[in-house]
Amino acid sequence: MVALAVRPATTDSERGQSRLSRSERVIEVRLTREERMILALLADGYLLDGIARRMCTSNRTLRRRIRGVCDRLGVQTPIQAVAWAARRGLI
């Protein structure tokens, strides 16, 4: 489980206020062992075919799982998901 603190967007009137008065939400992001493995293999440069073979799954299933991870992390592309995981030391 990875906890990610997200600060809400501020307006011009809120920027003058103290940062301590802002509320922060903590979003829990849970990645399974297989999802972390997929991100690690992507980071190592494996193509989807190679990852699918290694994980004994179809390309279609793998693409669906990658899309689900991206949605959960709030990123647009698998590259962004890999960068997100790398910054947090998951891969």
From TrEMBL:
InterPro entries found in the cross-reference section: Sig_transdc_resp-reg_C-effctor, Tscrpt_reg_LuxR_C, WalR-like, WH-like_DNA-bd_sf
GO molecular function terms attached to this record: DNA binding
Gene Ontology BP annotations: regulation of DNA-templated transcription
SUPFAM superfamilies in alphabetical order: C-terminal effector domain of the bipartite response regulators
Keywords: DNA-binding, Transcription, Transcription regulation
Stretches with biased composition (Basic and acidic residues): 12-21
Record-annotated HTH luxR-type domain positions: 24-89
Region of interest called Disordered, as start-end residue ranges on this chain: 1-21
UniProt entry tagged with the keyword Transcription regulation: yes
PANTHER family named among the record's database cross-references: TRANSCRIPTIONAL REGULATORY PROTEIN NARL-RELATED, TWO-COMPONENT RESPONSE REGULATOR
Protein name as catalogued: Transcriptional regulator, luxR family
Species annotation: Actinoalloteichus hymeniacidonis
Lineage: Bacteria, Bacillati, Actinomycetota, Actinomycetes, Pseudonocardiales
